[in-house]
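4.2 Preliminary Data

To establish feasibility before requesting continued support, the project team ran the inverse folding procedure on a target of 103 residues. The structure was first converted into the token representation described in Section 3, and no sequence information of any kind was made available to the design step. The complete token record follows.
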């Protein structure tokens, strides 16, 4: 008798994403606009002002766009907030993002 032969499939499936190269990091945040992304969760109201204060002392002219300008990126309307994010970042002139403040 011969042994049974089974088809084997890879349980993780094929990758569906493409690797993209990242932009280089900003060397100096002075005069830059920073977008803050958050869902207003754990200690957000306490930590965000501290982060802003410390960065403002180090980088003159830094500007912050509060997370409320971008919507709740982790909540009931997260799909819409994420879909609108590129345009919102562009509209506010954001140079860099801090994500998950207080998380």
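Position-by-position output of the design step:
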């Amino acid at each position: 008798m011969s042994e049974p032969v089974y088809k084997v499939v890879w349980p993780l499936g094929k990758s569906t994403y493409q690797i993209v190269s990242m932009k280089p990091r900003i060397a100096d945040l002075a005069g830059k606009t920073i977008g803050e992304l958050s869902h207003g969760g754990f200690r957000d109201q306490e930590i965000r002002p501290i982060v802003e204060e410390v960065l403002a002392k180090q980088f003159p002219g830094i500007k912050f766009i509060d997370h409320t300008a971008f919507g709740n990126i982790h909540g009931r309307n997260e799909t819409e907030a994420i879909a609108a994010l590129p345009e919102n970042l562009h509209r506010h002139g954001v140079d860099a993002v801090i994500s998950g403040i207080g998380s």
